[in-house]
Amino acid sequence: MCTRSRALCLLLMMFCLLASSVAFAQEEEKIEKKTTEADDSRATALLKTANAGMRAHEQGKYDEAVTLYTQVIDSGALPPEDNLMSYLYNNRGLLRMQRADYQGAVSDFTNALKGRAEAMMYVNRAKAWTLLGEDEKALEDADKAVELAPESSRAHNQRAIALLNSGMSGRARQDIEKVRFLYPFLK
Prior knowledge:
Blueprint: H1 2-58, H2 62-74, H3 83-98, H4 102-115, H5 119-131, H6 135-148, H7 153-165, H8 169-182
């Protein structure tokens, strides 16, 4: 009898464990669904904020654009290497350059490059380096921009500026000729 009641007791305990396991799994599923919905809602809100920043930028509302870009960047919701983050950092960097915050612009362009190493981002950072008087760094970035986009007149133009500032007028002339070749109407 004792053995039989122990077996029943053991069976009952196993059933209770199984039932609580199923209930726990169901609860876990509900929590995951709510978390996903909250994440989706937050992501939607961030995208709306980013889009509002881009619209403000296009409309010339630069202070508003910087504020909105900063909200998304500082949210921590997106990893630094995300394409949207690269775009936002690049745009904020351009606005910082307009405000003569060249060090802030360099920082933003550097962060933008973590996500996407695009020629224009190197051109933008090279320009900021030039405005800071960092000709060697400007030349490094301009070289990288030309390497990534050999047919980019802006990359060649920025490199020509960096070369001229570094006293290398012979090399600068080559880039100026390339720009003229790419855009013959500039003659």
